Amino acid sequence: VFYCKLLEEANRGSFPAEMVNKIFSNISSINAFHSKFLLPELEKRMQEWETTPRIGDILQKLAPFLKMYGEYVKGFDNAVELVKNMTERVPQFKSVTEEIQVI
Per the UniProt entry, what is one GO biological process (predicted)? Predict the structure, then answer.
């Protein structure tokens, strides 16, 4: 929600879209991985839980893709600092983030 709303506002010219992409790093890739691969595998396994009560094999199979979390975590501190700076300097950024938090 934050990514989409902030990108929408950035596309209106309130602030650079590059800032939004720096804040959220590779979150789109992580979301795609979750929705297309990890979640379906886990949901399928939950339906088979009586006969196959484990998830380690799923995580092992998908382990190479889990490396994308490292990139996200590596940039987290910088992203938090960027959010702080943008909130202080750009009223539209602050307005959008506050509006979302109320929802």
Answer: cytoskeleton organization
DSSP letters for 54-80: --HHHHHHHGGGGGHHHHHHHTHHHHH
Task: Provide the residue ranges of all domains of the chain, joining segments of one domain with +.
Answer: 1-102
Residue with tokens 């490396």: 67
**CB distance 82 to 22 below 8 Å:** yes
Per-residue pLDDT tens digits for 28-52: 999 999 999 999 999 999 999 999 9
41 contact partners, CB below 8 Å, separation of at least 6: 58, 61, 62
pTM of the model: 0.79
Residues 56-94: b if buried by 16+ CB within 10 A, e if exposed: eebeeeeeeeeebeeeeeebeeeeeeebeebeeebeebe
Q: How far apart are CA 60 and CA 58, in angstroms?
A: 5
